[in-house]
């Protein structure tokens, strides 16, 4: 082997080593880009969730003013449901508007557009209470319309929430949100 061949062989191995190092650096950069993109997607999904929850707060306030009772007041919700089921169109419209906002929240969570952990942390108990108290109305509407999938995303979302124990007042009614059981 001549000196020229040895230098050519050394240069070839050097070039190969530089190429392997460059490929490794490129692979590392792609990995970091993928992680950064995933983190950004997660942050944006959480932000979108919080924005929708804020919008629902405004909508809930409007509906409270129009006559929707606190979702944890079982007696008042039952009375509203009774009015709706006996043909009161305004009660039906209130309930439909109210539950549709939560159903859309369920659609967003189910399709991964919204973050379920954020929803659970912020409103898990509320969503469970909504589904529990409005369940009879939901079932009646499914039967009346022959549509078993009506509000299924609200149902799915409530099932995905983590139940928490809440103290009840002596009369067995959950206290309004933000108040203690002794109030």
From TrEMBL:
Top-level division of the source organism's lineage? Bacteria
Pfam families, from UniProt?
Answer: DUF4760
Keyword Membrane belongs to the record: yes
Q: What stretches pass through the bilayer? A: 12-34
Instruction: Give the UniProt keywords, A-Z.
Output: Membrane, Transmembrane, Transmembrane helix
Transmembrane among keywords: yes
Its protein name is DUF4760 domain-containing protein
């Amino acid at each position: 082997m001549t000196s020229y061949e040895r230098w050519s062989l050394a240069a070839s191995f050097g070039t190969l080593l530089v190429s392997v190092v460059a490929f490794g650096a490129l692979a590392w950069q792609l990995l970091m880009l993928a992680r950064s993109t995933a983190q950004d997607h997660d942050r944006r999904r959480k932000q979108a969730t919080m924005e929708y929850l804020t919008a629902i707060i405004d909508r809930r306030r409007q509906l409270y003013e129009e006559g929707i009772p606190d979702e944890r007041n079982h007696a008042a919700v039952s009375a509203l449901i009774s009015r709706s089921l006996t043909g009161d169109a305004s009660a039906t419209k209130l309930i439909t508007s109210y539950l549709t906002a939560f159903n859309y929240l369920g659609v967003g969570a189910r399709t991964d557009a919204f973050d379920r952990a954020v929803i659970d942390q912020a409103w898990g108990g509320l969503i469970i209470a909504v589904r529990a108290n409005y369940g009879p109305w939901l079932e009646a509407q499914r039967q009346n319309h022959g549509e078993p999938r009506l509000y299924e995303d609200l149902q799915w979302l409530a099932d995905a929430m983590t139940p928490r124990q809440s103290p009840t007042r002596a009369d067995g009614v959950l206290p309004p949100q933000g108040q203690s059981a002794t109030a």
